[in-house]
Write a structure and sequence with these properties.
The structure is a homodimer of 330-residue chains.
Chain A lengths: L12 H11 L8 E2 L2 H7 L2 E6 L9 H11 L2 H5 L2 E4 L3 H13 L3 E6 L4 H9 L3 E5 L3 H15 L2 E2 L6 H17 L5 E5 L4 H13 L4 E7 L4 H8 L24 H7 L2 E5 L1 H15 L5 H11 L1 H4 L9 E6 L6 H9 L1
Parallel strand pairs in A: 2-10, 3-4, 3-6, 4-5, 7-8, 7-10, 8-9
Antiparallel strand pairs in A: 1-2
Chain lengths: 330, 330
């Protein structure tokens, strides 16, 4: 009997490099912006990886594209299904359209308007659910049964994680001197891919998660040494309300150096700085990395004093302008 | 008696290449963004040169930096003066700070708040004027007399034109296949530099000016074959209210293929598309190129049918968020 080698993590540098080959001609190689004004405010050199300029307005297209292109023809024929607050849904719709297959999307009723419009713009079929994760998952599995389509989870999937990891391949080529990368954390797909690739390229680089206080399951999980989920979440960052999965948790446990939690008001201030200084539209989830680097808990922690060159992933830009303006006025 | 060769234009490809060497380590090489959604809407391949991400939030830093660094030490010592609706003022303040000299700025009372804040952020000394060009010029010349500083005109200056022309050196390296470039026109400094450099690199490339109907002096000047100024202007594009100067007019006359005029509502719609699809904050003046490429006068003109690859200069991103939101709601 052959003994199969058990892979310890859902992705690795080879699967991430394969993903990059697979998706490279479909994605945008997003630019890195910098600002002397923000460097002065933070006391570091900040390098903003602008995934808000990715297709669909968020990093999610990398993973969705990799997953959809990884399916064999028989699997793909009946289409794909997911549940999502919006960015994965739009990304999956776009990836499915590229491949010429249907995408069925269970969308919670409270998803931001611009994200749902993106799904529709890319030809995804919206099926509304209640806002709870339970409802989202049950609506998705009903569609699954009816259509025979393939479920592509927003983050707890090795193909998704590998796709998101391609960000690090680009970023460390664009800015090789990074000491650390700050990454928004929600279900953990983005940070898992980013951490696995970055630490494989440069084992000395440090990976920091940024998380809202009102959805701090990753900070709690790291402290407890096991996955903690929360009875409810409360944060302006609609993209950061998911919990770690069984495939992302081991990567977060082993490769994420620390979690910085920030208040919603810090997120909103970071959105303002992104708009006013960087001239970039950033959704709350996308701005949390800047909020983290400006937070006192990061500034005053001696562990991070020598992180001079800081990569910050601006993960997405899908924010309704009226919502942005309202949040600034509060 | 020696006969001096009279230069026909205030700048040329050599002065632009010299400018690029002079300013290259101080400016951002701005990225070029593209969007399949906007390609589909316009029926062309659009390449957005994002000068909104230039230092100070607009292309103006290129020219100001070149002019300030071109001064000899004696000239520079007493500082620089200008009058500006804001972007040149902020750019000059920043360039002066780099050189360690004072910048005196005559700012009209109606200048956008964020632009005046930029001047102050970069250490420029604001001297308020009335909104008319006459008042702006007279305030500037009073400061000139009092300080002995050097006047640096916002556009009617070969050093400024050469600095702005460096955009074409970058853009045609980033996207060599461009058939035409659409450029906002106001005083003509930007388009003069862009046209001189681009047509020197690729004589077949076409240069189109984009101008608001309510400040259409360039369109009128091209039609009349001489500089036309207007008794007043009326447009949301606060950066496009100036008139051609005696150094920019000959370049516009000889190197600009046509002028497209657009309504303010088209400019506002273009700002919305920039925000919602490109995820970029663009001021009205900056969005006019996109408005032009989407206008019926451009779409339906057979002359431009074969312009498949279109460069669009997003010239600046300094727009107060509240003003942006108000303009969308109207």
């Amino acid at each position: 009997m052959e003994v199969k080698e058990v892979k310890k993590y859902a992705a690795d540098i080879s699967s991430i490099k394969e993903a990059h080959k697979r998706i490279n001609s479909y994605i945008h190689k997003t630019p890195v912006l910098s600002s002397e004004s923000l460097n002065a405010i933070s006391g570091r050199s900040l390098f903003f990886k602008c995934e808000c300029f990715q297709k669909g307005g968020a990093f999610k297209f990398r993973g969705a594209c990799n997953a959809v292109l990884s399916l064999d023809d028989d699997q793909a024929a009946k289409g794909v299904v997911t549940h999502s607050s919006g960015n994965h849904a739009a990304a999956l719709s776009l990836a499915a359209r590229l491949r010429g297959i249907p995408a069925y999307i269970a969308v919670p009723k409270n998803a931001p308007k611009c994200k749902v419009e993106n799904v529709m713009r890319y030809g995804g079929q919206v099926i509304w659910s209640e806002v709870t994760m339970q409802s989202r998952e049950s609506v998705a599995s009903k569609v699954l049964q009816e259509t025979g389509a393939v479920l592509l989870h927003p983050y707890n999937d090795g193909r998704i994680i590998s796709g998101q990891g391609t960000i690090s391949l680009e970023l460390l080529e664009q800015v090789p001197q990074l000491d650390c990368i700050i990454v928004p954390i929600s279900g953990g797909g983005l940070i898992s891919g980013v951490a696995l690739a970055a630490k494989s390229i440069n084992p000395a680089i440090r990976i920091l998660a940024a998380e809202p206080v009102g959805a701090n399951d990753a900070a709690q999980s790291k402290a407890a040494g096991r996955i903690i989920t929360l009875p409810e979440t409360s944060t302006v960052a609609d993209g950061l309300r998911a919990f770690l999965g069984d495939l992302t948790w081991p990567v977060v446990r082993d490769f994420v150096d620390d979690v910085i939690t920030v208040e919603d008001k810090q997120i909103i201030e970071a959105m303002r700085l992104c708009y006013e200084i960087l001239k970039v539209a950033i959704e709350p989830s996308g701005a949390i990395g800047l909020a983290a680097v400006l937070s006192n808990s990061f500034r005053n922690n001696p562990t991070w004093q020598d992180c001079k060159n800081v990569g910050i992933i601006l993960s997405g830009g899908n924010v309704d302008l009226g919502v942005l303006w309202d949040s600034f006025r509060k």
